[in-house]
Specification:
- The complex is a heterodimer of chains A (270) and B (197).
- Helix content of chain A is 40%, strand content 22%.
- Chain A has 270 residues and is an alpha/beta fold.
- Chain A has a single domain (20-260), classed as Aldolase class I (TIM Barrel, Alpha-Beta Barrel), CATH 3.20.20.
- In chain A, strand 10 (214-217), helix 9 (223-231) and strand 11 (237-240) form a beta-alpha-beta unit.
- In chain B, the strands form 3 sheets. An 8-stranded mixed β-sheet of chain B has the order 2-1-3-4-14-13-12-9.
- The chains are: A alpha/beta (270), B alpha/beta (197).
- Chain A binds chain B through residues 14-19, 21, 56, 61, 86-88, 90-92, 110-112, 114, 136-139, 182-183, 211-213, 236-237, 266-270, and chain B through 13-14, 17-18, 20-21, 46-47, 106, 109-118, 130-132, 134-136, 138, 140, 156-157, 176, 178-186.
Chain lengths: 270, 197
Amino acid sequence: MDQFFLFYASFFDQITMLTKRIIPCLDIKNGRTVKGVNFLGLRDAGDPVELARRYSEEGADELVFLDITATLEKRKTLVDLVTRVAREINIPFTVGGGIKTVDEIEELLKAGADKVSLNSSIVKDPDLINRASDAFGAQAVVAAVDAKRTGNSWHVFIKGGTEDTGMDALEWMKETETRGAGEILLTSMDRDGTKQGFDLDLLKLVNEQVTIPVIASGGAGTIQHCIDAVKTGNADAVLAASIFHFKEIEIADLKADMANSGIPVRNMAL
Amino acid sequence: MIALIKYRAGNIASVSNALDRLGADYFLADTPDQLETADGVIFPGVGHAGAAMESLKENGIDEWLQQTKKPVLGICVGMQLLYDSSSEGDTKALGLIPGRLEKFDSNDAKVPHMGWNVIHIKQDHPLLKGINSGEHFYFVHSFYAPETSDAIATCDYITDFTAVVSKDNFAGVQFHPEKSGKAGARVLQNFLDHVYG
């Protein structure tokens, strides 16, 4: 019986499906990482490229760079950064932060970004999703949604979570899919920074209502939180910042535990 | 030297960055005359197969590809265009490998197939030297080549489809080796070794 079970389990290991992704997020200001990082052996922990290379080597499946610079020089700095990252990193990466036009998106994709993440700009100008998706394909367009529980539902917040738009988050996420977004980056403003776990209710609901992949963000504190986001919340990917930056969780340990709980993850055989 | 085909549907930046990381000797080519000087050719592609095919025709690159005996590696839509046709826009493709690209059924799973998935190797081939079944590669696509006898490796998403194909001097990979970490770099290096071997 046990032997049969083992055979059965290993059979299922071998027909692994599309893996669930682990995505470290780097906040960028003026071309530098914002949050202090606690990495031994990094020559310059403020250098996003060096940090990105480190994550890539440790088994990150994808990276997200969110630019929070608020100056006129912003776009040029961001394009320079994307160019440098694309030269060094051989896994996909997304860039976001204040992107408002198709021209800006084109500039970032041409510089080597695989996807752009759009947040406040698509709330103000929803058709930007359609224009970007038509021009570059749905796979290049990530709709970033900051959601906060308000009564019995969730509202979309913008401007870094400071402004309530009054829009229903689930309805908005469905609309982003209809308009051509290829993926949703869903951040729970209630959980962001708390390390109390992802908002599983919200994740479950959105995954019942959209067919594009959903990246869970906001609240990761433990390995179990990430497993719950995938197994209970049905998330396709898990995004986190500080738990990786401060080495509270090693990507390799996270992947090993996810694999042990039956979640398909990318191994690094080579 | 390796020629990297430059046309409107190519994602030149990512592939050329990957070739730079490997220290490969390559140049960008957008005419048959330039391609004719190459030892081997990398044929990238993104977006709509029909639009990509139209773009290839502008400089006669389609006809050059159809007669060349040089080693050619198609990537993603570049691989797809090596086949007879694609149901994406009912596109007539290059006809170098028998088969027709079909769209994944989105009733069964999320489309596009986007992310890291494993390949299953069906035949020994220089392109997959050092790579084992179960290795992960990064895929982004909505159309797939059905598994045929030309498949070197397959991937399972909704259905078994061709992940790596080879026929005559043509090879193709449905995944993005330029974005597939060390495993992807190994595939590109294998192609370079094959060209210069």
